[in-house]
Write a structure and sequence with these properties.
about 190 residues; alpha+beta; 3-stranded mixed β-sheet; globular
Length: about 190
Amino acid sequence: MLKSHIEYILAKQKAKVLPPKVEIVCVDDGSKDKTWQIICEWSKKYPECKEGVVVRGLRQKINAGKGAAVKYGSLFSRGEYILMVDADGATDVKEIEKVYKIVSDVSKKSGKGLGITIGSRNAGQENVERKGIRKLLNTCMHMLVHFVLGFAYQDTQCGFKIFSRDAAKRIFPTQHLERWAFDVELLYLAR
């Protein structure tokens, strides 16, 4: 997944469609496997740079869930826009260009730099292939969120969202960051 995303990003940077520097922050949510070692290897392959792609890692000492991984990955990122992508590769890498254009347009129009684009596995369903149980669970979750919270969004649980930096600051407050900072390991290999 990282290989295909990096190749795509580099090609789009060359075509001047994406920013000249893109940072990828990989969050290991307290896994017991070799995830952290893999992140370290990718960080060495793509160290800090002025242009291109840089890979950094963040390891939570205990499994704190997807919400914590997204929050702290966002807080430790440094870009103008923050794209959240699940590591299972469920969303086609080619969607990055589309959501980047939409969120940058929206944040400019807001006048406050606020922009969010939420992916949906329900839009254009004829192109999405999922097993029956996943479709059923997705539909049930959508109905639950809609009826309980009143949200009209198609797919709040989709692991493909992009935020402007200013929107992320409002979504992920930092008042408890000091307490949390002792529970993570930040990988930042500068060269």
